[in-house]
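The protein record filed below.
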Amino acid sequence: MHAEDLKYLVEDLKRCRSLRSISLDFSIYRDISAEVLNNLGEGLKRLGSLQCITLKFGAYTQITQITDEGLGNFAESLKRLGSLEVIDLRFTRCKKFTDAGLRNLGKALKRLNHLQSLTLSFYESTQITDQDLKSLGESLNGLNLLRYISLSFTTSQQITDQGLKYLEQGLNKLSLLQFICLNFALCEQITDQGVKYLTKSLNGLNLLRSTELIFSCPKITDQGLKYLEQSLNGMSFLRDIHLNFALCEQITDHGLNNIMESLKRFESLQSLGLDFYECGQITDSGLKSLGPSLNRLSLLQSIDLDFSECHQISDQVLNDIMESLKRSDSLKDLHLEFGRSKITDKNLHTLGQSLQTSSSLQNIDLSFPGCDEITNEGLSALGKSLKTLSSLQDLLLNFNFCDRITDKGFNTLGQNLKRIDSLKTLCLNFEYCSITNKAAKILNKDLEQLSHLHRLDINHCQDITMNTDSDSDLSVESEDDDDDDDSNTD
């Protein structure tokens, strides 16, 4: 999109006075100038009936040069859109605006008293400070109808605990809030005290049903998890909980076990996500309560667990977790990541047995890269169980760097997968496994029987070349292939 194209867009907007929703993604264009925001604001001012706006800036374009002036002019246009109910603004690597620009944006938001959903993302906008969070917190005070909020400040190195305290003072006023997502991943100045401030803000939100908290901050310890656990104790009404403390290397079994124990109280929980990637001090003791807690959550429809790079977790505890899935009659989505862990063939056999009792499963994502105890035997056992899942639509298997898997296990897997007639999407990652082009040809032939399969990806198999079978409608996508088109069997 060039400047001339943008002029036409603005003119079109001026004529669409009854427009209710607009979504523009400028992040994919490489030659847009910083004037975009000014010109766009002029067009938006005329859309008095607008209810939903989604804008994405940054990443690969010159729009990363957005300044306080541009953001201020855009904020002025927002003030005139009194009917707005949904705002989604994403600024990727936009580092030129300062506290003044965000203060103007906050003032504009405060005027939108019909707003029900707010998403703000400032990925790698490293100039964000505590004062910006103060301005944002103050703007939330007037948004009494807000039901959904998502705030992301990934890698904002200047944010401290004080900024989270400012934000908490605004969040705790949102009495109608039902969904909250707070992302402070890699904000290295945030400590346990910051976790305390934010989790405290959740206590009075009695209508809250879904919470996602991302605190991949290296200074967080067991005390931070203790503050979180205390807050969760009063929120047994939650239906969705997603907690991300990846890379928090100071977290130990003591802190994690408190969280695991508290999960038992959430009898209405439908979706659970736990990410403790590369928390190297976690051992069996920290996860001993997870299996029993999962057993108590009879309404769970989605489970997402990531304990990759937790090298001290034994195969026995992993077996207990796999065993607990047997009682998940309502489970539809399962995502397990235990990369570079002590997963064995025995674990895959237990997992397979559990999957057979979960006939409602529709989406499965299993990632066990670098688990060098896995062999053809374990893969075959898993495949035999997968073929019994008559509702399965999407399947991803990641066994990268499991070098004991060969053509034999891969072929047996294919023979089982071809019996899952409901399968629509299949992604197989087997980088640095001993799999050859011959096995890929056999797999292609097997999967031709899947009449509903729309996408087949075989990624990163260094011994597999493209176009393994010229007579097959299915294609194999390699690591170096840039084509994202789906493969069809129609």
About this structure: The first strand starts at residue 21 and ends at 25.
